Amino acid sequence: MPDNSFTSFVRRTLARREATLMVLLVVLLVPISVRSPQFLSIKNVNTILNDMAILVIVAIGEFYVILSNGIDLSVGSVIAFTGMACGMLNESHPEFPVPLLLVVGMGIGALMGLLNGVLVAYGKIPPIITTLGTMSIFRGMTFVLSKGTWVTAHEMSPSYIALPRTTFLGISLLLWIAMLVILSFYYFSRFTRTGREVYAIGGNANAAKFVGVSETKIRVTVFLISGTLCGLAGSLWTARYASAVNEMATGFEMQAVAACVLGGVNFAGGAGGIIGVALGTLFLGVITNALPVVYISVFWQTFVQGLIVLIALALNTISDQRKNRKLLAQRRG
Amino acid sequence: MSETKQFVAKSRLIDELSWKNRLVEVFTKWEVLLCIIFVLVIVFFSNMTPYFLDYFNLMNATFQFSEKAIMALPMIFIIMCGDIDISIASIIALCAYVVGIAAEAGAPIPTLIVLSLVVGTVAGLINGLLITGLDMPAIAVTLATQSIYRGIAIGMLGEHACTKYPENFGFFGQEFIPGTIIPFEFVLYLFFMIIFAFVLHKTSYGRRLYAIGNSPETARFSGINVKRTRIINYTLTGLFCGISAILLASRILSVRSNIATGWDLEIITLVVLGGVAITGGRGTVFGVFIGSLLVGYLKFGMGLLKFSGTMMTIVIGSLLITAVLLPRLLDIYKANRKLKMQQMTRVGD
What we know:
Strand content of chain B: under 5%
Structural class of chain B: mainly alpha
Radius of gyration of chain B: 24 Å
CATH class of chain B: Mainly Alpha
Number of strands of chain B: 0
Strand order of the largest sheet of chain A: 1-2
Largest sheet of chain B: none
CATH topology of chain B: ABC transporter involved in vitamin B12 uptake, BtuC
Order of helices and strands of chain B: HHHHHHHHHHHHHH
Radius of gyration of chain A: 21 Å
Number of helices of chain A: 14
Distance between the termini of chain B: 16 Å
CATH architecture of chain B: Orthogonal Bundle
Helix content of chain B: over 70%
Structural class of chain A: mainly alpha
Helix content of chain A: over 70%
Largest sheet of chain A: 2 strands, antiparallel
Shape of chain A: globular
Order of helices and strands of chain A: HHHHHHHEEHHHHHHH
Mean pLDDT of chain A: 83
Oligomer: heterodimer
Low-confidence stretches of chain B: none
Strand content of chain A: under 5%
Largest interface: A-B, 43 and 44 residues
Shape of chain B: globular
C-alpha cells in the first residue's frame, strides 16, 4: 500500500537521484562560497555553466547509449573529427554561413554514429569493442584530415568564433543551445514512443522484443543520437576554444560517462533521466571549478573525477540492490 | 538394384562431404586463418622492402611489442571470463611513476622491481574487489579506476619527467641475452607465454576460466568460486602491469604521466584478434601469440614503409572490429553449410 503521509513523501522525493544531487550541490556550495565569496558571482556561475554546456550535450548522447545497455567510448574522437572538419571548412571558406557549420558538424557526427550503430546492431559487435575501435579510427582520421596541422584563431572567421559568445537575453547562445537540447530530449525521453522504447530495450531487451520493439532500430538510433550530438558539440567546441587541434576532447568520454553515472543512470541499462544527467553535469562542473578554490592543483582533476565516478557508481549499485531486496521481500510476503 | 545404386551414390556423397568438411573445418579455424594471414604479411613486407627479412631487424622489432604482448597474457584470463579491464594502461603509468620517483630518490634495482610489482598487484586487487565485491559492471569500474590511477600519476608528476635511473637498469628493456641477439624482453615474453598456455590449457584453473566464460551461473552451481577466480584474474593483470612498467621504464628511461596512453586498446586488440571471444569462454594462448606477432610485425613493416603512427592507429582500430566481425561471419557460413549438408544427405531417405 502506498503511504501518503508527509514523511513518506519527503522520503520518496529524497530517494530520487535528482533530489539527492540538488541537496549535495547546496551542501557543496555553502563552504565553497564561504571560502571564496566570488565563486557564486554571476560572472563565475556563467563561466561554469558555459564550461558545462558542451559536456551536457555530449553527456545526453552518452546517456542514450548507456540507457540501451551500451557504452560509447568514441565521443571524444567524434568531437575531434567534426570540430576539425568545421574548423578547416571555416578556414578555407570563411563565407560559408556559420549556422550551417553546426549542421555540417551534426551531419558528419550522425554518419559516424550511424557507423557505430550499424556495427553494433547488425554486426552484433559489443558496443565497448565497436567504440574502442572507432575511437582510434576516428582519431586517426582527424590526423589524416588535418595532416597534423592546427586551425588557429586568426585562421577562423570572426563570426564563427563569436557564435557561442553571442548573448540573447543575457544568456550566451551556447547555453541556449544546451538548454534546447536538454528540453527537446527531455520531451523525447518522456513523451515519444521511440524514447520509451529505448528504456524498454535497456531494461530487458528480450521482453521488449516480444512486445514488438525493434532492437536493431533502437540500437542504431541511440548511436545516431550520440553521434549527432557529438557533431554539434564538436562544431561548438572549435568555436568556443577558437582552435581545432588533433588532440582535442581526448578523454572526454570519461567526463560524459561521469556525468551520466552521477546523474543516476544505471549501467545495466533501462534507468535514468535527462534531468539527472543535466544535474550530474552541473555537479561535475562545480567540483572541477571548485578545485582551485580549495587549493588543489588542476593536475589532480583526473583523479578527482575518477573518484567521484567510482563513489557515484557504488552508491547507484547499493541503492539498486537495496531496492531489489525490498521488492523480493515484498513478493515473499 | 536401383536401391543399391542409390545407396552407393549417397555414401560417396557423404564421404566427399566429410572430406571437404574437414578441410573447411580446418581452414575456418581462427588460429589457422591467423597463421595464413601472418605468412601473407611476412611475404608482403619482405617483397616490399629488403630490410624486413633480416634476422637482426626481426629480433630488434620485438622490442616494440614485447611489453604489450606480455600484458595480453593475463588479459586473456580476464576476457575469457567475460570481463574487461580498460585501466591497465593507467596501472602501468602508476607503476612507472613509482619506479621513476623511487629511482630519483636513489633506490637500487631490486627495490624498484618490488615496488612496481607491489603497486601493480594492489591496483589490480582493488579493481577485482570493487568489481566483485559490490557486483559492479567491469567496464564502469575500470573506466573510473583508469582516471584514478592515471590521475595519481598526473597529480604527483605534473609536467615532470623522471630520467634518473640506477646503472644497469636499462638491461630489462634494452639488452640482449648475453652472446646472442635475442632481446631479454622477448625471451621473458616467451617464458610467460608458455606458463600461461600451460595454466589455461592443462590445469583445472584454466578449465574453470572457460566454464565461467560460457556461463557464470552454471559455473557457480558446479562449485566454482567465480568471485575468487575473477579477483585472481584482476590481481594477476595488475602484477603484470608492474612487470610491463619495469620493462617500459627500462626501455625508454623516461617516465612522464602520459606514459603508455592508448595501450588498453592495443592490448585488448591483441587478445581479441588472437581469437578470444569478447563474450568469454573461447580462445587459446597460441592464437593470442600469433595475433601479437602479427600486429607487432605489421606495425614494424608499416614503419619500414614509412607509414605514420596515425595510419597504424587506424589499422589497429579496424583490425579490432574486423577480428570480432569475422568469426561471426564464419559462424554463419559454417551454420549454413551444415544446413545444406543435412539437406543433401537426406536425398533418397
